[in-house]
Structures are given as structure tokens and as C-alpha cells.
Amino acid sequence: MDTATPVNATIRQHPERAASAEAGDFLAAGTVAHVGFQVDGQPYVIPFSYQYDSSAPDRLYLHGGHSSHTLRALAAGAAVCVTVTMVDGLVYSRTALNHSMNYRSVVCFGRAQPIEDPEQKQAVFARMIERYFPGRTAGEHYAPATEAQLRATALLAVTIESMTAKARRGAPTGPLDGEPEALGTCGVVPL
């Protein structure tokens, strides 16, 4: 199992799109985390729902069944890369090369530890439900997890050791996009 220390994240391609100050906002707004790890030389990237709260900016939570290959590998110490991306628009240009998309993205590197305490698990799951479904509360809108359900669900806290964020916003930037008389069309399709 790979347990190498994660590399320090540096934005090399389009460094002008760096958005480090917004990394926590991107994690709080996202809905799907792609979780990357390696076992015996084989890389995996698996989508997960996740919990992130800006009051603990160095941590996010992943959950699933105890039989999950991903959660077992992470609990055993595998380095993890978690990526959250939101696509805000498709950017079309008058030149083929300058088609793009508007997005917000954050990449986190770290390690995970299992959470076993039932009260802590219950609290994390309640916050996660509230994050995905604002206004829903246990005991009013749904029955809280039972002790058996908590035991049956693995919960990992990923400690974020380093992260980077990047965003592209705005109109197309091709060399002909500012010329209304040029061939073709340009603009943004909001998503």
C-alpha cells in the first residue's frame, strides 16, 4: 500500500486562476468528491458524497459500508487525494482552441482516520444531511440513525495536509472573441 507523503500542491497550468482563499468555500458548496488513492500500484478514483464544515477547515468526512475497498484502504493509511469540482458554465469561442468551461475546483491531499465514537458519528451524519438538505432535522424530518446503523457505517475523517483551489470565470478569451465581425459566435452557457 502506498503511504508516501503527499506532494505539495502547486498550480502550474493557468496560475492566474489560483483561488486559494476560496478553497473552503468550494468544499462547502460542492456535492461530489472524487477520492483518489492507490493500492498495490493500482490507482483508483471513486465518487463520494462528503461532509465539510468551514469551522474545521482542515478536515472532511467520508462514509460508506465497512466492506468499501476505498474506506478500508484509507483507514489503513493510504495517502488520499480528494477533488471537488463544480462546473458553472460552458464557454464557447470563435476559435477551437479557446473553448473552455467556467468552474470552481479544489484538490486536497491528506490521510484518513476512522471515527468510532457513535455520538461523533451521529453528529457528523446530521450535519451532512443538513448540508445537502438545508432545514432537515433529525426527529422532525427523518429518524436519526440507530445504534445498529451507526455500527454498520464506516466514517473516516480526512485530515487535509495541503490543498489548492482554482477557478475560471467569465467570457471566452480567444483572439477573435472581442471582434463582432469575426467568423463564428462566442459566449457562455450557464449551468
From TrEMBL:
Pfam families: Pyridox_ox_2. This is Pyridoxamine 5'-phosphate oxidase family protein. It comes from the Bacteria. InterPro entries: Pyridox_Oxase-rel, Split_barrel_FMN-bd. Gene3D superfamilies: Electron Transport, Fmn-binding Protein, Chain A (2.30.110.10).
